[in-house]
């Protein structure tokens, strides 16, 4: 069995360079690869294109890369929790491509599956469809969307084994599974890394064939974007 374990985030991110395109898993601040993002900040790579559902918050998640002006372009669906993102976008410092959330997920999954493009009704008749091919199927109009092309995909899982098999937990099972195998190299950081054979095959969400490097993360904060509780 191939062993894909690496020591830490620094070793996992070997090869990441300026101007690359990175997929980054997570939904809000749930299931984001905290260790890998922190290492990207240390590497100080610049002019990145980041494909992620959202841009984190000002002082956490991808917001840390935005603070240091490491991201040139964001390809996202929801970006409403980050004031620095808003400032850079409005000032023209940051290129932004907003995509319907389902389309974003499907463009990742298409890349994972080797499908070059697909038709979707989402966005037809709006700015999303400008410059794109459209076609009618069964008396309904669709927009042609292309699969993403990324150099690295960085995801976070609950458990994994040294062969790269992954199990996600709760809301972390969002964009992370679709991004596995959707780039030239997929890196998985996990809360618990186990020997091969330790995971129940019936519980595995992503098989190891989609993963090139895996490591056990440390010191997860698991922040909540907006904590809302009932008044006592």
UniProtKB/TrEMBL annotation:
Keywords assigned: Transferase
Keyword match Transferase: yes
GO function term, MF aspect, one: CoA-transferase activity
Top-rank taxon: Bacteria
SMART domains given in the database record: CoA_trans
InterPro entries associated with the record: 3-oxoacid_CoA-transf_A (IPR012792), CoA_trans_fam_I (IPR004165), NagB/RpiA_transferase-like (IPR037171)
PANTHER family attached to this UniProt entry: ACETATE COA-TRANSFERASE SUBUNIT ALPHA, KETOACID-COENZYME A TRANSFERASE
Protein's recorded name: CoA transferase subunit A
Species whose genome carries this gene: Paucihalobacter ruber
